[in-house]
Structure formats: structure tokens, C-alpha cells
């Protein structure tokens, strides 16, 4: 199982960024996929999750209306579109899935929101 995030970087407040997570080693289309984030000195927290078919989506209150999670099962990739970003969105963003009772994580991608 491998989860590889990309797309992080430096963005100005109010700007946009799209994160991608390429998955391999399992049947991507049958599993829930999630994005988490962890800011310095804080616990890792759920940002958004999407069901296997993309029908059911969950967002943390702090990103509702600003971030959009989506997936392309043909490409085994899950995305996080981040709009209207704020300095408090600065964190390492992780892709996650629970397979066979185990949590799998990507290596993370740094997002820094600063002017």
C-alpha cells in the first residue's frame, strides 16, 4: 500500500491550492479516503473524507465552504481543492485510508499560508 501526496507549497491568504494523493497497492475504488492535517504543536485532525463511490462526503467545520474533496477512481487518486485559504490552514496535509483494520498514511505535504 502506498499513498503519495503532492501539490503542497506556499500560498497567500485567500489563495487556492489543490492537493493530490496517488494510491497504489490496493483496490482504491472500494475504500473511503480521507485528508488529515497536523499543524506544529497540534494533534492531527480530520479535514475531509469521501466514500468509495464519492457519494458521501464529510468535512470538518473549519473547512466547510472552502475546501472540496473529490476522487477519480480510474486514476486511484483523491484530491483536496483548497480555496480561500487562511494562515491557520498552515499544516502538513496527509492522505489516509483504513484497510483491513490498519490505518495507512502518506508521507504528507506541507501547506504554508502566508503573505
Query: Radius of gyration, rounded?
Result: 13 Å
- The amount of beta strand, in percent, is over 45%
Tell me the span between the first and last alpha carbons.
37 Å
Q: Helix/strand-derived class?
A: mainly beta
Succession of helices and strands: EEEEEEEEEEE
Mean of all residue-level pLDDT scores: 97
Largest sheet: 7 strands, mixed
Unreliable stretches covering 5 or more consecutive residues: none
Helix content: under 10%
Secondary structure tally: strands: 11
What is the general shape?
globular
What is the count of helical runs?
0
What does this structure look like?
This protein has 115 residues and is mostly beta strands. Helices cover 0% and strands 53% of the residues. 30% of the residues are buried. The model has no long low-confidence stretch (mean pLDDT 97).
Task: Please describe the structure with a list of short key phrases separated by commas or semicolons.
single chain, 115 residues, mainly beta, 7-stranded mixed β-sheet, 4-stranded antiparallel β-sheet, 11 strands
TL;DR of this structure?
The protein is mainly beta and 115 residues long. The protein is built from no helices and eleven strands. It is globular, with a radius of gyration of 13 Å.
Architecture blueprint of SSEs:
Layout lengths: L1 E5 L2 E3 L5 E8 L8 E6 L6 E6 L6 E3 L7 E6 L4 E6 L8 E9 L2 E4 L3 E5 L2
Parallel strand pairs: 2-11
Antiparallel strand pairs: 1-3, 3-8, 4-5, 4-9, 5-6, 7-8, 9-10, 9-11
